[in-house]
Design brief:
The complex is a heterodimer of chains A (265) and B (511). Helix content of chain A is 43%, strand content 23%. Chain A has 265 residues and is an alpha/beta fold. A ten-stranded mixed sheet of chain A has the order 3-2-1-4-5-10-9-6-7-8, with helices on both faces. Classes of the chains: A alpha/beta (265), B mainly alpha (511).
């Protein structure tokens, strides 16, 4: 599931940090990394960037990774998505960085653009990995609406069973429009959650279920904060009118969450 | 009977305001005037925008993929024929008001248009007719449609009690059975009781004017009070006995009499002139519709807009819980498309024709024959219709027919209001306890009589209109709830085959 990562890299980051991040993604099962450095048109030296990428490749070879790399000029989000497609990456690993409100307001966010545009799973790593920690991920929320994308993300979730121990299955739904429909909805949700709980109990040590009514992004963020989780796994294919107007749940959670996010389209 | 929170709180609020109106009508007047003028001044724009939004929403919904959804179970047939349905729609929504304002409103606008139009001019006459169409046209019906559509959908299709709070289940869930639901329903009761009471009081004044002109009955307060008492006895008997078919018969007969009165005035009056007025005003209305829908005249003429357009919009919104519940009840079994198109366009066209006949005839007397009816309409509004009939053959018969129409409209309206109030204060029970109906019937007539005596009737009308502000927000949220419920229904998110939960059937004992 996570065999090959596309890793957009900022060449200002230290070699030590790159190695720490590479070690972290190896816990997910990643064996090959395609490093990509993108420069704005007319700025920077492509040859210099390529040499820096070569140095990184040599260093990470010694850690047992298969490495490819490329320095390109272009728009970051489009280039990342295209490169992930061309190189048949299993997923895109995006090292998250805290940016202030003004930065988002004026320049937008490459991460948001990538998760909107890509057809590949995206792992947005919000916290800098701790080099001394044996396991980078232990507590995970699996947010599901029982739809197709949530089903797909379940496969990715299961492949994390070697490193993750504690799973919370979270369903955030809309209330039924009358008491009878609501009762039906609740029964339906409980049945689905029970089924999922049984299924995931085979792979994970501890499985909890939560169901709530309201805005999915709000509930996911609340639960993530409350349970101090390391990762939220959710589907990201939202194309309804509401999503077009106010943004998708995936974008909202990615923008506001303090923990890492795995989005599966 | 006295256990219901909605019933108790509503009754207490009504009694407090009535006591205030009896002992210190000036204070009640000051409170209601200050709050009313502040609301209209600061939030008037919201009424205009909301009413336009409701109109757009209704039309879009009718032609959307939800248009074929039935206001009832899939196999239900409409309970009333088209004639019966249109008669009751028209009678509940506009009937009394049209008799009161059919002549008086165009003449009032003709005499006192906004500042940028010269009074008593040709422009003022065209403006008067156009705005009479506008004030009684599409927007009022769109307001009623939002209310009644939501109630009908949640009650007859979703099996919930016919209460306004029921429409909030998608948003509030079980909280509709708590404080939030109580507030919504109490506001509805508040607006209904004061709306009906003021209409009853003002209507009694008009009946009295008519009787004074035709039979020379003294136009004193005592006579008006006797009239209120008579109307009260009539609608209470009807309400207690539960004359289901009788009320239907009265509504239909009333529509026939109204139709005869309309046709008589149309044929005996200046027929070509009326058709000219109808055609040109319809054209101007269509041409200026968007402008009128969003026009507040902020630079010149704002006071006029506040006094007329915003007053009307607030009044229709305040009146909508009562009309909405009634219209919902009589529209069971129709599709959303049929309901919206029927309730929006048929009464509107009838109203346009009514205004063209009565307003046009009055304009003809004023402009072509030099009879100063406008002065009567502006100084003694209730008598305007009778003053116009005085220039027609069989004037006494026409006046008697108009008085009869007013009385029957009042009996049917007050009876319906008693039923609706009883239902709203007994958790949406379609067979409200007789005790509650009697209490509300007596309360509304007593409120009308006492405040007519103390002079607090108009203050009470303003209080009712004040309820329109929260109701505007409530109605916007109703649109959201309705859309969400329709969307969920379309997706068939939780099919019945999954679990064995059946929706309760709503039954009714009358009407």
């Amino acid at each position: 599931m996570f065999a090959k990562a596309l890793f957009p890299i900022d060449l200002n980051q230290t070699m030590e940090e790159t190695i720490t991040r590479a070690k972290f993604i190896s816990q997910l099962g990643t064996k090959y990394i395609h490093f990509l450095h993108i420069m704005p048109p007319g700025l920077g030296n492509l040859g210099h960037a390529q040499r820096r990428l070569d140095d990184i490749a040599v260093m990470l070879h010694s850690y047992g990774f298969g490495i490819t790399r490329k320095a390109r000029v272009g728009s970051p989000a489009d280039t990342i998505c295209q490169e992930a497609k061309d190189n048949d990456a299993s997923y895109i690993y995006i090292p998250g960085r805290c940016k202030n409100v003004m930065y988002y307001a004026l320049l937008g966010s490459t991460t948001r653009d990538v998760i909107r545009l890509t057809e590949k799973p995206a792992f947005v790593h919000k916290k800098r990995p701790d080099p001394w920690k044996q396991k980078g991920l232990s507590r995970v929320i699996y947010a599901t609406d029982f739809e197709e994308t949530a089903e797909r993300s379940l496969t990715y979730l299961k492949s994390l069973s070697s490193t993750v121990s504690d799973i919370t299955i979270l369903h955030a739904g809309q209330r039924g429009s009358d008491p009878v429909s609501e009762k039906r909805r609740q029964l339906n949700v409980n049945n689905n959650l029970e089924h999922l709980e049984k299924e995931l109990a085979k792979d994970f040590a501890e499985v909890k279920v939560r169901a709530g009514v309201g805005l999915p992004d709000k509930l996911i963020l609340e639960e993530a904060e409350l349970s101090c989780v390391d990762l939220v796994v959710l589907g990201s294919l939202n194309q309804g009118l509401k999503q077009k107007i106010i943004g998708s749940t995936a974008e909202e959670v990615t923008g506001k969450s303090k923990c890492s996010i795995l989005l599966v389209p | 009977m006295f256990r219901g929170v909605v019933f108790r709180v509503s009754l207490i609020i009504v009694l407090v305001l009535v006591v205030l109106g009896i002992f210190d009508p000036d204070l009640l007047n000051r409170i209601s005037t200050i709050s009313y003028s502040n609301i209209i001044t600061h939030f008037g724009w919201s009424y205009l925008l909301a009413a336009f939004l409701f109109l757009i929403f209704s039309i879009v919904l009718a032609f959307s993929r939800y248009g074929n959804v039935k206001l009832g179970k899939d196999n239900e047939k409409p309970e009333y024929s088209y004639f019966g349905w249109f008669s009751m729609l028209f009678a509940a929504g506009m009937g009394i008001g049209l008799i009161f304002w059919g002549v008086a409103e165009p003449l009032n606008h003709y005499m006192n248009p906004p500042a940028h139009i010269a009074g008593k001019s040709g422009d003022a006459a065209a403006f008067a007719m156009r705005y009479s169409f506008f004030h009684w046209g599409l927007q009022p019906w769109a307001i009623y449609i939002i209310m009644s559509l939501s109630i009908a959908y949640f009650s007859f299709r979703r099996g919930m009690p016919p209460l306004i709070s029921s429409c909030f289940y998608p948003l509030l869930g079980e909280r509709i059975y708590g404080v939030y639901g109580y507030i919504i329903d109490i506001l509805a009761v508040f607006a209904t009781i004061f709306g009906v009471a003021t209409s009853l009081g003002l209507g009694a004044l008009q009946i009295n004017s008519g009787l004074n002109i035709v039979f020379g009955l003294p136009g004193t307060t005592t006579t008006t009070l006797v009239l209120i008492a008579v109307v009260t006895v009539l609608f209470m008997v009807s309400s207690i006995v539960g004359l289901d078919k009788g009320i239907q018969f009265l509504s239909k007969s009333n529509m026939l009499i109204a139709g005869l009165l309309l046709m008589f005035t149309f044929i005996v009056g200046p027929t070509s002139y009326i058709l000219n007025v109808f055609s040109s005003t319809l054209g101007e209305f269509a041409n200026q519709f968007l402008n009128m829908s969003l026009q507040l005249h902020p630079f010149e003429g704002y006071e006029w807009t506040k006094s007329w357009t915003l007053f009307y919009w607030a009044w229709w919104i305040a009146w909508s819980p009562f009309v909405g519940l009634f219209v919902a009840r009589i529209s069971r079994g129709r599709t959303i498309k049929e309901f919206v198109l029927g309730a929006l366009f048929v009464p509107t066209l009838l109203t346009f024709f009514w205004f063209s006949v009565f307003g046009g005839s009055a304009m003809e007397l004023q402009l072509e024959q030099g009879i100063n009816l406008a002065k009567v309409a502006t100084t003694d509004t209730p008598t305007a219709l009778f003053a116009m009939f005085a220039h027609y053959p069989l004037s006494n018969l026409l006046s008697v027919a108009a008085i009869f129409l007013l009385v029957v409209f009042f009996v049917t309206s007050a009876d319906s209001a008693t039923f609706v109030l009883g239902m709203m204060t007994s958790g949406g029970n379609m067979c409200p306890p007789l005790g509650k109906k009697v209490i509300w019937g007596i309360v509304q007539s007593t409120v009308a009589a006492i405040l007519l005596l103390s002079g607090g009737l108009l203050a009470l009308q303003k209080m009712a209109i004040n309820a329109a502000l929260p109701f505007t927000l409530i109605m916007v949220l109703m649109c959201y709830n309705l859309l969400r419920a329709l969307n969920q229904e379309e997706k068939e998110m939780y099919p019945t085959s999954d679990v064995n939960v059946d929706a309760p059937e709503q039954s009714c004992c009358r009407r």
